[in-house]
TrEMBL record:
<keyword id="KW-0326">Glycosidase</keyword>
<dbReference type="InterPro" id="IPR018085">
    <property type="entry name" value="Ura-DNA_Glyclase_AS"/>
</dbReference>
<protein>
    <recommendedName>
        <fullName>Uracil-DNA glycosylase</fullName>
        <ecNumber>3.2.2.27</ecNumber>
    </recommendedName>
</protein>
<keyword id="KW-0227">DNA damage</keyword>
<comment type="similarity">
    <text>Belongs to the uracil-DNA glycosylase (UDG) superfamily. UNG family.</text>
</comment>
<dbReference type="GO" id="GO:0097510">
    <property type="term" value="P:base-excision repair, AP site formation via deaminated base removal"/>
</dbReference>
<dbReference type="GO" id="GO:0004844">
    <property type="term" value="F:uracil DNA N-glycosylase activity"/>
</dbReference>
<feature type="domain" description="Uracil-DNA glycosylase-like">
    <location>
        <begin position="54"/>
        <end position="214"/>
    </location>
</feature>
<dbReference type="Pfam" id="PF03167">
    <property type="entry name" value="UDG"/>
</dbReference>
<dbReference type="GO" id="GO:0005737">
    <property type="term" value="C:cytoplasm"/>
</dbReference>
<dbReference type="InterPro" id="IPR005122">
    <property type="entry name" value="Uracil-DNA_glycosylase-like"/>
</dbReference>
<keyword id="KW-0378">Hydrolase</keyword>
<keyword id="KW-0234">DNA repair</keyword>
<feature type="active site" description="Proton acceptor">
    <location>
        <position position="69"/>
    </location>
</feature>
<dbReference type="InterPro" id="IPR002043">
    <property type="entry name" value="UDG_fam1"/>
</dbReference>
<dbReference type="InterPro" id="IPR036895">
    <property type="entry name" value="Uracil-DNA_glycosylase-like_sf"/>
</dbReference>
<comment type="function">
    <text>Excises uracil residues from the DNA which can arise as a result of misincorporation of dUMP residues by DNA polymerase or due to deamination of cytosine.</text>
</comment>
Amino acid sequence: MNEQTIALEDGWKSALSAEFEQPYMQRLKSFLIERKQMGKRIFPRGSEYFRALDLTPLKDVKVVILGQDPYHGAGQAHGLCFSVPPGVRIPPSLVNIYKELQADLGITPARHGFLEHWARQGVLLLNSVLTVEEAQAASHQGKGWETFTDAVIRKVNDECDAVVFILWGAYAQRKAAFVDTSRHLVLKSPHPSPLSAHNGFFGCHHFSKANAFLEKHGRPPIDWQLPENPDDQ
């Protein structure tokens, strides 16, 4: 995959330029082209593969929230983990995230699932795998994206100071196990999925803990209250 052909935020493009030259990225590019030629619908659209990086430059990262795969329903995925475009039904895990936000900070749940307001403040909403095929969950796992997003997390770990890593579920916790806890705050809990949220996600207070850590280190806290109108982001 040639990074020169990819519209990517300049700071990230510079930081990750070596990754785009690696054989695994060339294989990934070939795989994606092949699947499209076979008529497969791939989500999100190509211009949004790197949306999380475009909205949250490396120098501005304050919080990292790790997801696993994009949503595989039509119209859902747009490049940010847990987020959906305006007008799309709020997914169950995000409903639970909103419940915890309300319990933790008294924030009234938004009536939409569009999280760009967080991303623009420095919340890197990063999936481990950046593409998926329609109605085929986890269909692009093991094709190279995990190696790329490992490199993204390593750049944040190495080049940023006082970042909060919010790791919901065992998958995210394994992926970011190398994060330097002497420099960053790592918050862990079960996943907000309805299958596991009652096992310790509810009551984790990760949003208030993240802001307390940021303020302690002289960094502006995150305004977790989403605009009522998603177009205001």
